[in-house]
Specification:
The chain has about 80 residues and is mainly α. The protein is built from three helices and no strands. The longest helix is centred in the first third of the chain and has 38 residues.
């Protein structure tokens, strides 16, 4: 019985921490959406911005390989 109580407290702490992080994630998502709306309002291409963000998350070498492949495929299909 002694072991159940500490495990229960630990589990409760994890659940509480995850709930808090999910709330923060939701709030951050709202902030990100607001930034995209502002960029769109100023006539920036939001799709391009999202693609840049996705590419910047890749490692530099992987990104370069991916960009090279995209260029090659575009060259092939546009001939």
């Amino acid at each position: 019985m002694e072991q159940i109580k500490p495990m229960g407290e630990e589990l409760k702490n994890w659940v509480t921490a995850i709930e808090t992080l999910n709330e923060e994630k939701s709030a951050i998502g709202g902030e990100i959406s607001a930034i995209y709306k502002e960029a769109k309002k100023k006539e920036y291409n939001v799709k391009a911005i999202k693609e840049i963000i996705k590419l910047r998350q890749l490692e530099r070498m992987v990104r370069a390989e991916q960009m090279d492949a995209v260029r090659q495929y575009l060259d092939i299909i546009e001939r």
